[in-house]
Design brief:
The structure is a single chain. Helices cover 52% and strands 1% of the residues. By secondary structure, it is an all-alpha fold. The longest helix has 21 residues.
Amino acid sequence: MSGRSRAAVLLAAVVAFGAVLVPAAHAAPKAPRTVVLDGARLQQTRARLGHDPQLRRALKELTTRADTWLDQGPWTVVDKPRPAPGGDVHEYLSQAPYWWPTTTPTADNPWGCPYVQRDGQRNPEVDSGTDRQDAEKVFDSTYDLALAWYYTGRQAYAEKAGQILRTWFLAPATRMNPDLDHAQFIPCTYDGRAIGIIDFSQSYTSVLDAQAILATGAPGWSARDRTAMGAWNAGFLDWLKNSAFGKEEGAAANNHGTFYDMQLAALALATGDTALARRTVLDARARRIDPQIAADGGQPQELARTRSWHYSTFDLVAHTRLAAIGRNLGVDLWSYRGPDGQGLVKAVDYLLPAATGAAAWSHPELEFHRYAATDVVHAAADAGDRAAAKAVAALEAPPGGDLWALRPAAEQLDSIAG
């Protein structure tokens, strides 16, 4: 055999070996039809991984997170110690986080009722006995795993994400009903509250994007799964639009209303109702930005809270994600200016001194985390805000690393919400 022939054989062997490492079906992934994330940007980012050290470092942080989920779960609403009021084990149940018992529980009063509110002080009992913690694990794990599969092609990530989604949403024995009738209940007072919709609205849009990523051809996520998940999303959207709780939450004037709109628009886009999605984004200008953001960029309703930094960044997570949904619909919320000059750019710029460590936050805050603003500053920088772009280098990385380059859509980075 000639030297040229031996070289050709060797080259063929190397190519074949590479095909084992990177499955052919994953070699040129589609741009996912995501609702918040920019699918084309994800595809471009994946193509750059091989020659961008910064992206490879971020990918290591992402896969470290994804690896931790491989031996956890799946989770289900039917596992809680007591079912939701009414007795249906498939009903989601969570407890109001800032409400506390006033007496010692007894056999006749097992909850220690009546309950009173302590704003910003989380009652630890809400983290046991209900579905809230498990739902958050479902949201976080499927997002991390789907992204990790998309960027690496590792089959185990996709299969685990599919297992988690099927168990929580689809399998007849373990599925959750597509409603939130018993979210954030208050023992002995309310069986559920409209305010509990935020349990899902703050994070479920990430699950919609995870589903879209898996739909590009992930192993373990079949056409049947996609169809069933689409039906669940359609049922949830119907409940969100038409239930008394949904209508009440949609009328909320603070961060709850912003998150409601974000979830409504995302579900509408994911299920094919682009008219509703577009209308919701456009209406957010007068319904959300104008009344919630002041001329100087402050958010008066959030600044009045005991955790004003948390809630200012938290509300902007919803605003910036809603703007990302708008981008996917051809609507630019970032350029909007209200009658007093208010807008998303001013709201983010209001946070920059504290976000960069240049100045202390001058409003009440029980637990200040500078990194809580990192994602919303990134979002503003990407949207063309020069002050935010200049601030990026001084941002504090959140626990687990700054993953913006791999999943450029704002997340709630500190842990308390309600």
